Amino acid sequence: MAPTLDQLIVKRTTIKSKFTRIQTFVNSFNANSNIHLLKTRVTLANQAFQEYNSIQDEIDLLLDRSDKALIEKHLEYREEIENKYCEIIATIESKTESRDDAQTSNSGNHAPFAHLPPIAPINIKPFSGCYKEWLTFTNTFKSIIEDNSYKLTDCQRFQHLRSCLEGEAKRSIEQLEASDENYQEAWKILESRFKNTRLIVQDHMLSILKLPSLSKASHYAIRELLDTIIRNVTALKQLDIKIDEWHALIVPIIIEKLDYVTIRDWQATLDKDVPTYSSLIIYLEKRYRTLESISLINNKTNTPQTSNANQSINKKPRAVAHVATSKDSNCLYCDKIHSIYHCPEFRNLSSQQRFNFTKKLNLCTNCFRSNHKTQTCFSKSRCRECGEKHHTLLHRDGPENSETQHVNSVVNHSLFNLKYTVILSTALILIKNAQNKYIQCRALLDSGSMSNYITTSLCKKLGLKQNPIHINIGGIGKTKSNIKYSTNVEIKSRYEKFSANMNCLILDQITENLPLARIDPKHLVIPNDKLLADPMFYDPGPIDILIGAGLFWELLCPNENSPAGELKLEATQLGFIVAGSLNVPHSGNLNTSSGLSITLTSVLEKQVEKFWELEQCRTVCTRLTDEELKSENHYKLTTNRAADGRFIVKLPFVNNPPILDSNRKNALRQFYNLERKLVKKPDLKADYSKFMREYKLLNHMEEVPLSEIENQKVTYLPHHAMFKESTSTKLRVVFNASSKSENSQTHLIAAKSRIAPLKTITLPRLELSAALLLTRLMNVVSQVLHMEINRKYFWSDSTIVLAWIKGTPASYQTFVGNRISEIQTLSPKDGWYHVKSEDNPANIISRGCTPENLKNNSLWWHGPHWLNQNYSEWPIQNVNLETVETPERRTISLLSSETPTVELPILTKFSSYKKTERVLSWVLRFINNCKNPNSKNLANHLLTEELQNSKFTIARQLQKTTFQNKYNRHLARF
């Protein structure tokens, strides 16, 4: 049984008493006493400090997180113990060192040269010439070398000085020889060169100004920031810079480097006065301690509890530091203040080296902790590359010695310098399509590729059959792409009778347009009698197909009579090169240093691998819930065996019985039905009355007081009479414990919220986005539940949103219309209702709520109280949505134009159509004679053709007047 909080506090008090006894002994230790008695106290203090840490960690886990005062009290207690532990260790070391020094000085009386230290370099940080390190170096060197108890000569000091210099500082005194006179000369040179107050101040200020800004608060980041600021400000004070008068300048500079949360909390502590530098440092120190404590508590909380046996087995000795630090905050690889997965040195290792390091330290390969194995890791994080249970930093692309075949290819095109470019071999070829017709395409000839490629667009254009295939292509820098299809193509030359069949892998794009930049052909000297494979090679263009080395050498060496499957020998300036396709068995992997690596895995191998993955029996660790553990403990404690061999188990009872819904009306209704039945059967009624009286006399039931009738902690069990002639007891009363209650129950199944975007948008738009989120959540929950839902009700407290949903999406602007359309697709229009804001559970999460209040909030977990009632009793408000003013309606601009029509006066001058027709014919003849004076003019009577033309003219004019809009589109051509 785990210890309680009070028991742990008692243990902690005992350990504190042990620290007090150790401290009392150490303080009263006499220099003449046995020094070993003092050293044994170090072991006792270390053991006590380890016990205290484990007990305090258990106390932290049991504390109430909402009680901030209690947490602060325990943090102060922890700090007090740590300080006492450090004082004990420091006092012991001080007394031990003073005892050793005394013994050394006594022995020096018998060794006249023992006081002379060796000329080896003193353990002082070398000075390289950095201005801001000058003061620290000079103070340290003089306190150790010049102001010590040893009698060193200036020559010896000069040797020590030279050993503590490097870089520019060391070069400045290299010309001096080691002598007593040159020691002071060396100091003068160094002071004249590096004792520059202006540059020192400037260097310290730049160190503060160039501090990196914190994006997120963490205890180690704030500690590093604090150390840098304090170190540089202290140096400025040593230079007599009145930093205390710079509050208005130095404080904003430091504030600018902090994260948002820290700045916000700092501003909350300020009043109208200008904050001082010291107050800011005090605040940051407190902030650091708080974050460090939270980090320690979180690390302990996330650590799964193991048994004491496992702890004793896995427990390893470790060195105890003299200053209490958090081991979790130090990197396990470089021992600096950051986590191991943020360590740049650890990240620079290969994945295999990182894996070997974690195995060497017995770390979990999933979360890099040392207190559990990978199989028992509770972290839900997985590798982002493959999804397996290991850290992403340990992911390996694949085994180095695989049994698959690696086909390597490379597209060697680059443009390293804009002053020149490289022309790759391209050609225009003919390729056969599915209709046995040849289409011209552009090909790239690549001798470094073992495969041929074709683009997806060309394959679809040709109508070729695509064969499924499993191929992974690994490129330069271990980039990967997956190829799923291949095809067979037939190509031939545009000039020669050459033709060939080849298998091509299908890619979306082979390479960029080649060449990368257009080349002016005027600068190229090409003989005119040469037939170019690609006449427009100098213009950038797409590559449709890539021909690899299997066919490349046959194209390049047409006169070579080597049979298919034989190697080609080509003379070069480097010697004969061997290339070509090879149809012979081979062993091992075909790995080269080319840019693209293609791994071919057979389909059969994939199927066998998938089979074993499906058939593998995985061990599932079942964990019992709290209720199951209580049931098991109850069975163990209350089970016993009777004398007759039967097992007797005590019935378990629930300590906190659930609140049952009222079923009194249902029980009364069934009782009235029973009475009506008994009235029709007097004999049965008599037996029933006798049974109930006997039941009451035996104290099996009693009359319910009137005050308890409406008690919500009471449930009613309806009963009915069962009659059976064949039994000795003909009538039995049966109680129905499974009777349903009157009201339904409502419980929260799922909830979803989103933070409002940074860009300011209107409240109706936010409410509409919330309604859309509700429909999406309802759609997902409906699919997951796998149960029949009779009707869905959607609620919103925004009348504008309800009016939008009832409307037409096309009537509103794009943002609103798109969301209305999706809402209407996922939910019915008539399924949306208005709810008051005080009855809307969504307002709880949008307006904020503490975890303590949320835990007991009935509105959040069960909804408004009226949901348990019948539909007729719901306070559904009939909101008149037609009167709601809906914003963001789409505005439509209409433009109307009116073209005046001109009618011929002659059409309205005469009342007779025949007369109008003849008059118009004479007018048209006159117009024709005027236009053509040299032609033979008509002067006699009207012709039939002229009368017909007049009729068409009248009809055309009437159409223009009556059908003005349609005339231009349909009748103008007649």
Fraction in helix: 40-55%
Q: What class would the helix/strand composition place it in?
A: alpha+beta
| Uncertain spans | 104-122, 300-328, 398-419, 584-602, 615-620
Number of helical runs? 31
Mean pLDDT: 76
Largest sheet: 6 strands, mixed, barrel
Second-tier CATH architecture of the largest domain:
Beta Barrel
Overall morphology: extended
Strand order of the largest sheet: 2-3-8-4-7-6
For the record, the CATH class of the largest domain is Mainly Beta
Radius of gyration: 48 Å
Range of strand content: 5-15%
| Terminal CA distance | 105 Å
**CATH topology call of the largest domain:** Cathepsin D, subunit A, domain 1
Number of beta-strand segments: 17
